[in-house]
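Deliverable D5.2: sample structural annotation.
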Amino acid sequence: MRILVTRPAAQATEWVRDLQAQGLEAVALPLIAIAAVDDPAALRAEWQALAQQRLAVFVSPNAVQHFFAQRPRGAAWPSATLAGSPGPGTTRALTALGVPSGLIVEPAADAAQFDSESLWVQLQRHDWQGTNVLVVRGDGGRDWLADTLRSHGAHVSHVAAYRRMAPAFDAAEHALLHAALAAPAAHLWFFSSSEAIAHLETLAPPGTDWGRTHAIGTHPRIVERARCAGFARVVEARPALAAVVACIQSIRP
C-alpha cells in the first residue's frame, strides 16, 4: 500500500523520509497549507516582551518556525521562560532553534497522545497563579489549554504566527489524488488533523464514496472525523514512528 502523508509540507517530508526508511512506500500529499501572517509586527512585539512570560506554548513545529523567523538579531531565549510543546516534533524544532532542553515542557514520551491535554499533565505541576502565558498558534485553534491555564490563575494571551489554508494542488498532486481515489485499496491515508479530512472532501469530486478507503488517525477526534466522512476502516495510532509503522503493518493485506 502507498501511504499518503497529509501533514503540512515540512512535516510531511520528514514523515515520508522516516516511513521510507522503514521500507514503506510513502508520499507527501499535504492537505493543509501553511503561510506567514500578513503583518508580523505582533510577533516582533511578543519577542520584545518574551522575558515577561512565565511560559510560551507552541502548538506545532510551524508555530515555532514562524515565531522564530521574527526573532530580533542576537536575541536569546529568556532563561526564566518555559517553552511548552505538545509533542516531539515541536520539541525538535525548539531545540534546533536554541531553546535549552531544560526549559522545554512536553508530554511524557509514553503519553497516549501528544496534545494539549497530555501537555497539561506536565504543566499542572507548576503554580500558574498570577503568571503570564503566551500561546503561539495559527489563526485560530482550540482554546482548551488556554482556558485551563486561566482557571488556574494565569493571564493568557495569544499570537497568530501563521495561517492555515486549504492547499492549492499542482498537477502532480492532483494526479496523486486521482490515483488514490481510483484505487482505494492500494492507498492508505495518514491523517494528523481533522481539518485535513475536511479539505480532502472539498478537493475530491462531489459524491466521492469513501466506503472502500482506509486511514490512520493520530487522535480520537481525527478517527471520529474520518469515520463520519465514511471511511471504511480507520485505525488510531500514537503519532510516533514505531506506532504508526505497526498500524500500517496491521492494515496492509
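Annotation notes: The two ends are 8 Å apart (CA to CA). The longest strand covers residues 155-165.
The annotation will be released with the project's public dataset once the embargo ends.
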